[in-house]
Predict the structure of Peptidyl-prolyl cis-trans isomerase.
Amino acid sequence: MSSVTAVPIEPTSRRVLTMLWLGLAVIVAAAVALAWFGTSAAVAQTGTNDQFLAWNARQAGVQTTASGLQYKVLKAGEGGRPTDADVALIKYKGTLRDGTVFDQNDRAPLPVAQVVPGFSEGLKLMQKGGKYRLWIPPALGYGDRDTGGAIPPNSVLVFDVDLLEFIPMQVLQQMQMQQMMRGQQGGAPGMPGGR
């Protein structure tokens, strides 16, 4: 018969065991965090408008107003802000939550008071030269109305907006009146009826 010689194994120190347990705890916490954030983003993108807006409100740089409009300053502007009495000259791109583009324009003059409430509120936050991203909840957009176009009822509207310029509506109306009067006085120089 052969005999087995026992080789004593030194016990593992408490410090090493503590480090192993801490390392395991960190790995488990990281896995839970990855699962949570990955799942919350997926749920937000495919979930209800409320789920999406709740998730979006927690994203870096996103601010939410008392009305529920969400916005992010992509580039700060300078100077004053437009009011309901102004016409804003903007560049914009409007999309749905899934990225479908429903409207865009490089130079659109829009009366601030005559657009959907969320868009108007967003414009009044901006300064000339600024660029914002707006997330407009249905209640501040078209609600449950069927627009007859590319915007389904109860849609969250996402806009990237550059505020190029704004002027008072009254000034714009005076400029248009002057142009009309010039047109009635014989047209432009070099044109038939012109000077």
Observations:
- The CA atoms of residues 3 and 30 lie 48 Å apart.
